Amino acid sequence: MSERTRRGTIQQQLTRTGVVIGATGASARRKRLVSYYVLAARRSIARNLAVQAETIGLGSASALIFNDERSATDTLSSLRADRNVVVARVYTADGRLFASYGSGAEAWPALAPSAAAGLSDAIQFQGRHVYANHVIVSDRRRLGAVRIVYSLDELIADLERFLAITAAVLMISVAGALLVARRAQRALSAPIVDLAAAARAVSRSNDYTVRVRANHSIGELGVLIDTFNQMLTQIQARDSELDEAAQRYQALNEQLERRVAERTAELQVINRELEAFTYSVSHDLRAPLRRIDGFSGILATKYAPELTGEGTHYLSRIREGTQQMGRLIDDLLNLARLGRKELVQHPTDLSEIVHRVADALTRENAGRAIRWTCGPLPTVNCDPALVDVVLTNLLSNAVKYSRPRPETVIEVGAIETPGMPAVVFIRDNGVGFNMKYADKLFGAFQRLHRADEFEGTGIGLATVQRIVHKHKGRIWVEAELDKGATFYFTLAAGLAGSGHSLEGGAHV
After folding, report:
1. Which residue of 2, 52, 82, 98 has the fewest CB atoms within a 10 Å radius of its CB?
2. CB distance 349 to 377 below 8 Å
3. How far apart are CA 448 and CA 11, in angstroms?
4. What stretch of H or E contains 158?
5. Contact, 418 vs 494, CB < 8 A?
């Protein structure tokens, strides 16, 4: 083989080797860099949006509780510091749009109430936007949800610039390798081997600390080596920045978790103090009320002949007020005791409780036409004394608010789904109410009807809700004005069997 043929073969090998190593290595690095950049950016955006959504949720919880839309809007306005946030919204628990942020908010239609009410914590990448959802919860009660729409336009622009740079670097690498290989001699093989080894090390282990020893006496190959080392330096710096950003976000998350834990502990202490205060005040009010009621009774008994008609009327109103206050104190004491009472659970047939309560209510309302319809009810692992309070309150309300009807119709039943707690419902044909006030229904002292229409203290449903929550269940209502109401509740304990059914009525 001639020297010319041997020299040509070496140049061809160097050319092929340089092109293959330059193209393959740079392409692989480019792909890994792009993938790493996109993945790191997605993770960073997801963590940032999760923190922002949770922060907005914390700031909007009190606004939802007190129906303060302006406060929620001010909380959302804090997002203006992030120019990539397109729109942000706060929804109520029933899916109603509560507050909104963003100059282009009208271009983003609100979710349907059913969809908004069903939002759960999630980060979704769709097209050129990211959707962050966060459920706002307070005291184990869902208050609403936060939804943030984040634009990826800036990230996509950065990625396009990054792709252009890496493409240019790839082209430069291939062109440089080809040029050097054509002009190389045997002395060039060592630096090329070093460069190939470094490229393989970076490609296989993502070790960006690797550097190729520069040899400026060999012209273009030295430039290629310097460019390669500079690219690795830039990548290493970017990787360090991403790691530092991840650490900062992690520290922020930990700080936020500590704040949430501290706030939860503070709320628990406040709740205990509030229960103790309620119990103390209610207990201390009993004695003066007894004296007022006792002395007014003596006045009504011993001095009735000496009182005028107006005086007798005033005295009667005093006694009615003290008796109403007594009932209110009893309800407050019962509500306060619930916070300290431990559950004593065992299998309980709900049908037996419904039978007993229905019979008692029928006797108490002699003269009214009441028709009871009760389907099969489950046997549930629960505290029977507390569940008796729940059913007594709900059935009593059904009878009370159906009083204007010629015939009261009350239906009790259960909806059972395999693997899920049974849903017990109580339906009446009473006066009902407007559902826009449903969020006030389970608050203490909240009444949707005047006291002269229907008697009550406004604490019964608050007591019912607290008992259901102690059983890890939930309660809700569906109603329509003048068309009755249906209360639903679940008890998280599993079913122990099926109960009995009651079909019939009492027409007295």
Report:
1. 2
2. yes
3. 93
4. helix 153-183
5. no
